[in-house]
Amino acid sequence: METREKIILKVLDKMLKLHKRFYLSNRPQWNISREELLNYPMGSLGNELGQFLLKSNFHSIPMIERHDVFHLLFGFETHVKDEIAMLFFQVGNGKVTPFTTISAFGAALFYPECFFYFIRHFNRGRNAISVSNWDFRPFLNENFTELQDTIFLNSSPAPSLFQKIKVELTKTKYHGNYQTN
Q1: Contacts of 150 (CB under 8 A, 6+ apart)
Q2: What is the pLDDT of residues 114-151, one digit of tens each?
Q3: Is residue 78 assigned to a domain?
Q4: pTM score
Q5: Which of 29, 43, 119, 156 has its CA 20 to 30 A from that of 22?
Q6: Cα–Cα distance, 32 to 135 (Å, whole number)
């Protein structure tokens, strides 16, 4: 591992602890194990998430389970460059919290050669439905591909999925390019 990767991971770890303490303390934990996720129907978000965690040899971290969902839905790997790109995606997607913004731009300083890569993912985030405040638990039974296509505006959702999306969109001010009426 490069020195800059070690530095970024150490700084992000410290910032994550502060973020959990001040911003996530009221967020409910999912209390769903990797094994339980693997029992969801094949092709569902829950099963795909379980497969991702198994393949990566990870377990969900309490209160930030959505982070792994973001990796999966947005197509990011777990190496440092993609972690930073995912932060840029989230800022573009409307998650403009101090943690996300400072982490994205601070980490990007260590990777100036990836500037256009990060900007491309910022724009991908702007062009997707805003999911920064979604609770993904109601979506664990939903078809992963259909959910992903809907988030990236590649298709119209089925009526049941549309209703769940509408509920989540009412929780956020920023909707990206998605219209609910």
Answers
A1: 129, 156, 157, 161, 165
A2: 999 999 999 999 999 999 889 999 999 999 999 999 99
A3: yes
A4: 0.87
A5: 119
A6: 14
Q: Is the pLDDT of residue 29 over 50?
A: yes
Give the Cα separation of 109 and 127 in Å (integer).
24
Neighbours of 130 (CB within 10 A): 24
CA distance 125 to 175: 11
Contacts of 99 (CB under 8 A, 6+ apart): 15, 16, 18, 19, 23
Burial label for 104, CB within 10 Å (0-12, 13-18, 19+), is buried
What are the start-end ranges of the H helices in the chain?
3-22, 34-38, 45-56, 65-74, 80-92, 98-108, 115-126, 144-151, 159-169
CA 168 to chain centre: 15
Q: Which two tokens stand for residue 171?
A: 């929780």
pLDDT digits (tens, 9 = 90+) for 38-94: 999 999 999 999 999 999 999 988 878 999 999 999 999 999 999 999 999 999 999
Range of the domain at 60: 3-122
Task: Answer yes or no: are the C-beta atoms of 92 and 86 closer than 8 Å.
Answer: no
The C-alpha torsion from 52 through 57 and 59 to 65, rounded to 10°, is -40
